[in-house]
Write a structure and sequence with these properties.
The protein is α+β, with helices and mostly antiparallel strands. The protein contains 4 helices and 6 strands, in the order αββββαββαα. The two termini are about 20 Å apart.
Length: about 120
């Protein structure tokens, strides 16, 4: 997966916005205004995903390429290496699960949350 494939995949989800709140290279993707994935497009070696605390522990135990995210709440955010042995299908799944988790736990109003969840394939 390269940065263009990554961007295309993330932007394919409903209500996703690409922002650069920090600098010109750090991309923050939001669903309905809430962060769910972060990446540095100049150094596309890892992404940061949002998840439940239990999922984070399980991911870090299962994959050496997944660690606690630097400068984020380590209970809810993990750093995922996109270079090396981690299959692209796993990276895509983690992005999608981050999107779904963020909708479930952070998106209001309820009608928007329910609409977004009903549109996920």
């Amino acid at each position: 997966m390269d940065i263009l494939d990554f961007r295309e995949y993330v932007l394919s989800f409903e209500e996703v916005e690409e922002t650069t709140p920090f600098d010109d290279s750090t991309l923050v993707y939001k669903v309905a205004g809430k962060w769910f994935v972060v990446v540095d497009m100049d150094d596309f070696t890892h992404i940061v995903v949002h998840h439940s605390p239990d999922v984070g522990v399980a991911l870090r135990d299962k994959y050496a390429q997944i660690t606690s995210a630097w400068h984020f709440n380590k209970r809810y955010w993990s750093d995922v290496s996109v270079v090396g042995d981690l299959p692209e299908s796993v990276v895509r799944l983690l992005i999608k699960e981050s999107y779904i988790f963020t909708i479930h736990h952070n998106v209001t109003p309820k009608a928007l949350r329910e609409r977004l969840l009903s549109e996920i394939e």
